[in-house]
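To whoever is on call:

I kicked off a structure prediction for a single chain this morning and the downstream step that reads the tokens threw a length-mismatch warning. I double-checked the sequence; it's 430 residues and nothing unusual in it as far as I can see. Pasting both halves so you can look.
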Amino acid sequence: MAEVVVVGTGYVGLTTGVCFAHLGHNVVCVDTDIKKVERMRAGEVPIVEEGLAELMAQGIASGRLRFVIDAAEVLPACEFVFLCLPTPERDDGSVDMSYIEAVAGRIGPMLAANAVVVNKSTVPVGASKTVARLLGRSDVHVASNPEFLREGTAVYDFLHPSRIVVGAENNEVCARVGALYKGVDAPVIFSDPVSSETIKYAANAFLATKISFINSIANICEHVGADIHTVVDAIGRDPRIGREFLQPGPGFGGSCFPKDTIGLVTLAAEAGYKFGLLESVIEANDQQLERVVEKVRRAVGGNLEGKLVAVWGLTFKANTDDRRHSPAITIARKLLLAGARLAVFDPTVVGVVPELEANAGGAVAVAPSAVGACAGADALVVLTEWPMFAGVSPVEVAGALGNTQVVDARNLLDREAWRAAGFTYQGIGR
């Protein structure tokens, strides 16, 4: 059992803290948001993440999980400090390290000798050296332990990972961090910090590449009359390729892929290398967003001005409430800029949608249900793959829509059932 402090309680930080407590460690999560800390102390989970509420309640009840505002009261007794702080993208594509730098510069004097400060956030290559310099402690170690969590399945991914990567200047520190995961059945890979930091970027860039690739193949399928489902089924059975991340859709999004792909292109440029392949991946993703907008435009007769579009889904993927860099939000904005009005429904959205207000001008209404969003609409577009949407009756939707046009940007709906109900159906690659 170790004494662990987790700084930051976003998706990564809260999942890390809760799961380490589940593994038997004493964990204190630190956040400067007083109201958020009070909510978490009361057992309220501030994010939508399957399984997190149950484990969090268990951790609090056992006494192994606590939440505080002031790190100074817990840092002197801790053995490990996990930095789980935001690393947003700057306008030039570089990564903003200011949150991590501020914390590293502040906590150095508070740490006990031989403590390990662990970068869990996605950080630029070389960040471990920056943190070590700011700590200013030769008797405190720095390690890199990148996360590979998927929002919506973050708890499962933490406890059942494909691998655990730890980077440090010596194997003794790597072994100490790796031992925190005792009870987790996964290979632990030791490396130097720079390799560890590069692994995270390389993994996300490759997954983003698979998404853009299959979306490009889907676009070819539409032109030649092939069906992307059959194509994916066949090529995904090749063990050299695999089925993961070969689901065609509106493009990749979320808090990681857009930022990390641009960050790796920027890093490559700083190193004197033009990463043309990844630049094309980003360009293909941008084009995919436009293609979905064009499908909606065709569905309403070629002109979006004044048309009412029902939108199902605003989060970047199902089973999360995260709308950061969501392709659904980007497409919705583009529809608004083209003059459309939107009736939107997402199971995680109540009231207004701040991300759309700047473009809205009163043109966005949040509906109470999926069918309610369709009332009088000129077309329906499915932008997030919430399972509940697949269960909505097309006959019921047909009775609400003003025009039986559906654009299924997730290939989620039963195409034949919707066509049988009188719909003109447009999917992706079908």
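Update from on-call: the warning came from a stale cache, not from the record. Cleared it. Sanity check on the structure: DSSP finds 17 helices and 14 strands in the chain.
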